[in-house]
Amino acid sequence: MATIDEVIKKSLNPFDNQAAGNFWEEQESPPTVESIHQKPLTQIKSLIAQISQDHQTRSLILYGDAGTGKTHFMGQIKEQLNDQAFFVYIEPFSQSDRIWQHILRYTVDSLVNAPVGQADSQLILWIKSCLSTIEKQLKSDQQKFINIIKGFFGKTDAERDRQLFIDILKKTIGTTGIYNANEFFGVLYDLTNPDLYSLACEWLKGDDLDEESLKKLRVKQSIDDEDKARGILGNFSKISAKTQPIVLCFDQLDSIARLPDGSLDLQALFNVNSTIYNGKWKGFLIIISIRTSTWNENSKRVQPSDLDRASIRIPLKRITLEEGEALLASRLYPVHNQASPKPVSPIYPLNQQVLEKVFPSRKATPRNFLMLGRQLFQDYKEWLFRDRQPPQPKWLGGGDPPPPPPPPWEIIKAEFELLWQQEFQKVQEKNTKITLLAASDLIWMLQQALEAIQVQEIKPKLISGKYASYSLSYQQPGKRERVGIVWTEDPNMTSFFNVMNACQKAIQQNLCQTMYLLRAGGVGKPNLAGNQIYRQIFTYTNHSHIKPSLSSVHYLATYHSFVKSVEANELLLVGKSITLQELQTLIRESKILEKCTLLQDLGILSKQEPIPEERNGKKDFRPVKDFLLNIIKSQGYMGVPTLMTQSSSQFSFVKEADVQLLIELLCQEQKVKIINPKAKLQDQLICFIAKT
């Protein structure tokens, strides 16, 4: 085996940025040090135990400074306590007037995920838990109900027992406070049918289904407004009184809807919390995670009576020097594990003396420890290559550590593009069809992308009425005319008619001179009223219907994810905290959004020739080449085998010979250099050639 210094030369920096977000989307989370934030973890575990006993809903504010690890901590809670509760991650809401629909959508989206080690989703486990509790309580009809439960577990054909299932739930859970009991319990039963499971989930989360789908589920209408969404969430609460608690985690609140004065609309969230309390909803633990500074700036605008209903406050504090050392050791362990002999210190090439000098108070945020680790590891790695004296730490002296010297913008851009590829891949895996996203979220994502590419005078809510949040308008580049955009994917043709009617009124009122309808789905049969208005607007006029591709949505959703991270002060590139303006600059300079065909179709960005995945039977290796250069830039120095491993994990079609050829091309272009070209491949080292 190689010595530790030889391993360090070849390795990636183990402290490189690892973006945090929705804990159901993170496939690989950073290692957790159990001693960190043990007190708040114990407090939350105790609260879940109390709710399991008395079923009383509780709310808490989880607050801490930027870098204390709030988002990572919620993932840790889910990981450790998912056998004691069901966990829901609520993304920031873009429209306060649709907040109940937003919460319902993300509740069901989270419940369809399976906990680690479980074959069933949280949703199925939730229903099974309820049924098991009812079975124990039931005195009459017990054998019939046992047969239903067997059907639920897939042992019999239980379709004929649907009405009995509904009747027994009405009898045991009751109908008082249950919104639309027959339809709701019937859809829960449909979750047992593999042919109807997906459709039942879509109805539960509020998709505006077409008539045929509603008929299959035996329901009259979709959950298409705030009252219905609140009612269905209340139903979840009623059933949760017979199961384990549901934990609703609200995170990244810096990205929620804003009031006219620019402040966050926290009141909307606390209105929800008060409604839950006033309605005596059961079985919920509501966690509102927020930065301390954001809380201090915005909580004064929340009604005191609403604040009182979230009286439990749990701080995430700075961690101790010993905990920081353990955190650094957890990141360095995979590097140490490749070496022989193993380093004596678990944080080598760092040392405790440096930590004590940098953090004289012996406390700091996890982020500060990791930033220091990244910088010192990189310094040591450069020293190994340049054969100089051991590096002197750049952060010494009293007080909080100042940031390291600003990294070159070229390196920041390279790390951003690497992180974009990772996030884009996650978005692709999660969003397999456009309708998984709400129309109001799609238009919000589009607005953020338009802002990034400097489109002027963007105004939300072009059309009026129920579907206003599906629309926006902006100033056409280089002209005085306004362009309107309406995005609807609702398959329900009544909803489509209402949207078309609202579009027609906006055009008649001259609110825009050009209108684009974004819709990948169908527009109904010619005899339908919605289709007739559609043809009047979009046939032989200057208005257009664009069918957005799924790939375009992936670009918008990926950029949206970065915006959330930036607004929550969670995006670090090369150890530097990135602002929204810097993110927008990175997007423009990297030209990533120029690949979004929707922005091309809108005439905002120039049309590009699509790059075929294969040309004359050969793959297009340009993205691979860009990836190789970016990773070498971000690392400065690394091992060629490590580079090959990274490229293979990112691009499944790439072979070792392909990577070697691309490296040779980069060397010929004098962008990178093999330091020891005569060495065996497994020992070769490569570095980036910085421009002078």
From TrEMBL:
GO terms for molecular function: ATP binding. InterPro entries: AAA_16 (IPR041664), P-loop_NTPase (IPR027417). It holds the Pfam family AAA_16. Keywords: ATP-binding, Nucleotide-binding. The keyword Transmembrane does not apply. Residues 42-270 form the Orc1-like AAA ATPase domain. This is ATP-binding protein.
